Amino acid sequence: MNTSTILTGDRTTGPLHIGHYAGSLANRLRYQDSHEQFLLLADTQALTDNAHDPQKVQRNVIEVALDYLAVGIDPARSTICLQSHLPALAELSMLYLNFVTVARLERNPTIKDEIRARGFGRDIPAGFLCYPAAQAADITGFKATLVPVGEDQAPLIEQTNEIVRRINATAGQSVLPQAQAIIPKAGRLPGIDGKAKMSKSTGNAIPLSASPDDIRAAVRAMFTDPNHLRVQDPGRVEGNVVFTYLDAFDPDQNELAELKAQYQRGGLGDGKIKARLEAILQELIAPIRARRSQLSKDRGYVLEVIKDGTERAQTRTEATKRDVVSALGLFQL
Ligand code: ATP
Ligand code: MG
């Protein structure tokens, strides 16, 4: 067993999608045998831009947990826990907010992108602007050193490490470890509409629970090359969503390289590449959907998994909070 701890999480804003699979779930599955791993159901973070709809955030706690279990996360090897029930994380967040400036939060490229995507303008909920400090609390609360995330999250890990360095410098000792992001080569998966990121909040996703018809419809509607009108025309591979998805999911990358060359030369129709992608996605999602539907009949079991994991996580995060309070020399009654 490797000694480093892994922390990842997902906002409970909707069921997980194939972007999550390519972006971090596949890595988490790989690591659960070799590492201690915590998976955080980030309901508190989800509220930072969903305060108008708390029902959605609470309903999706079970949905995301179901997705974890359906893809093969094993609660005996990985700890699934609920952010809002880990008070030490909230306390660390409050503390960390004093170790980061508003200017730095506003400069964070992930936050900038998300503010633009959500159309907040200057009306950003303060909790949203500050969530990088909360994410630093999540990561360090578990003393995690490895964080498998999508590419969009890399600046948040950077910001976490800045906070860690400040706290360690103030404490005069290395009370918190720095963390390293594990980013998959595939990068971020675009939405089926061709937008930069597939995201559960923008309705451009293929959920891991999608029905065969949903998958078919999503692939049919996918953005390819608008200038590739006839089969014999040369087509563009860059920016072609179908090829981007094939890059991420096609098990035969050699054959894919040949298909790309043929598409660029001309002579390969969109229908053919879409059929290939659809078959691959149907095969990927079918077993996940079947396990998910089975598990969703036993809500009691899913709740038990979350409760168990959250208790374990409480012990861990409380210990870290005590370490930080004592290293900084804060008052203790
Ligand atoms: P929301 O729209 O509510 O922000 P989301 O789809 O962005 O939801 P998150 O819960 O914010 O999902 O992200 C969880 C993890 O999944 C992060 O590590 C993120 O980088 C990764 N991820 C999310 N979307 C993608 C994507 N399209 N491609 C690759 N990784 C992704
Ligand atoms: Mg997100």
Query: Going across the major beta sheet, what is the strand order?
Result: 1-2-3
Shape, principal axes of CA atoms: globular
Structural class: mainly alpha
Query: How many distinct beta strands?
Result: 5
User: Mean pLDDT, as a whole number?
Assistant: 94
Beta fraction: 5-15%
Distance between the termini: 38 Å
The ligands found in this model are: adenosine-5'-triphosphate, magnesium ion
**How many DSSP helices?**
14
Order of helices and strands: EHEHHEHHHHHEHEHHHHH
Indicate the radius of gyration in whole angstroms: 21 Å
How helical, in percent, are the residues? 40-55%
Largest sheet: 3 strands, parallel
Structural features, described:
The two termini are 38 Å apart. 42% of the residues are buried. 55% of the residues lie in helices and 8% in strands. The chain has helices at residues 18-31, 43-47, 54-71, 87-96, 102-107, 109-118, 126-129, 131-141, 154-171, 212-220, 241-249, 253-265, 270-295, 299-328; strands spanning 5-11, 36-42, 78-82, 146-148, 180-182. Helix 3 packs across helix 13 and helix 10 (212-220) packs antiparallel against helix 13. The mean pLDDT is 94. The protein has 333 residues and is mainly alpha-helical. It has a three-stranded parallel β-sheet. Adenosine-5'-triphosphate (ATP) binds at residues 10-11, 13, 19-20, 22-24, 149-150, 152-153, 188-189, 197-201.
